[in-house]
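A favour, since you know our structure tokens better than I do. Could you add the entry underneath, on a fresh line?
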Amino acid sequence: MLTYKMLIDGQWADAALGETFETRNPYTGDVWAAIPKGTKEDAERAVEAAHKAFTSGTWPKLTASDRGHLLRRLGDLIAENAERLARIEVTDNGKLINEMLFQLKYIPQWYHYFGGLADKIEGAVIPIDKPETFNYTRNEPLGVCVGITPWNSPLLLLSYKLAPALAAGNTFVAKPSEFTSASTLEFAKLVEQAGFPPGVFNVVTGFGADVGETLTTHKHVAKIAFTGSEGTGRKIGELAARNFKKVTLELGGKSPHIVFADAEIDNAVNGVISGIFAATGQTCIAGSRLLVESKIHDQVLEKVIALAKTARMGDPLSTSTQVGPVTTPPQLEKILGYIDIAKGEGAECLLGGARPSNSELGNGWFVEPTIFAGVRNSMRIAQEEVFGPVLAVIPFDTEEEAIHIANDTNYGLAAGFWTQDMRRMLRVSAAIQAGTVWVNTYRTISYMSPLGGYKHSGIGRENGMASIQNYLQTKSVMISTAESVANPFIMR
């Protein structure tokens, strides 16, 4: 069994109280690593280290081009270690090796992109209406930023936050999920190897009540970037607001996936399966509500069920596996609970609906790919985030009805629809209330394109040029060239 340490101020350290907690392999249920159980004291040390690195030492003296060079070097190191990091993430969270290896090979692009953007952060000279006044703006870093990441894609979602934060000149404290901390601690070794000064990047592991709340409320923390549940995001937002800290919150989703009658049906079916059963449904952007035009409802449903039945459950480290285990025991119980709720509300379970009986899956935390038909959009299975391989199918008759159903939820993270009508592509994309809308595709992401939610799905945007503004503040500088000062009692 591996035993990890935290990275604080350039030093690898045990938790202040010397305690650890176990992390388990979702496929076997076995303990495979011991993680430091950080405390309030550890979190405070990490923030103080990041604050010191931001205000003194070598980091604030580096040019923007120097910061960019370090980021690009980090990207290269991630690429060199992609397979090793991917296997650690699979062992920790149970997601498929095919997906995690894709992510780890793609993650370097975040550090290359924002490394290139670091020295493109510019202010402006403003020709204001005041005579004899020279006005310009500066975009400056915020200070200490905290990134709190979930268990489903730890390093990808960390990169959404860390790359723009460092490019902008901030320092950083990462708090990974207590269920999947190992890959972030392994990643921290690469940050150190890349040559970042001590204290610029710190990792504190532990639980929300001790570590997370301390990081969120510490006086030296300027910003919190969080990906996770709506409930935790609301609490973070409330705590941050007490001291006017900036926040980026990427929260839950109940994304509609719409199939119109003119769609290429086989392509749409592949997209539907990708949207909900890939990643075992454990993604905020999961297309968990399938809206199908009534005239093709039965045909699409039959094809979706037939394809879902072929999904191979098994060892997530095997490249032939298509559906892996659920990451945590609490999440397993939550998913099974929602399946019972859906049955109790009258939804018809046409596929799955239980833990698999296959003995080859052993003690793994698996849930069968599950499909419910006869769903009304008012049902809890259509309104609340399950975060698992559970699909709710809802028929509609008109485009207007599809849009109404799609928007009739508290969430607005993502949406997708399938059609061959270009006018409809533009109309529906404009009408759907979601931060990302996919047309004739699903689960496409890019480091260049902003991601974030409407309504309860969050605040702010990650990725793309827009995201770096979340890690900057603008200062306006006015210099008078006048020979004398006018009446001091009158506003200039």
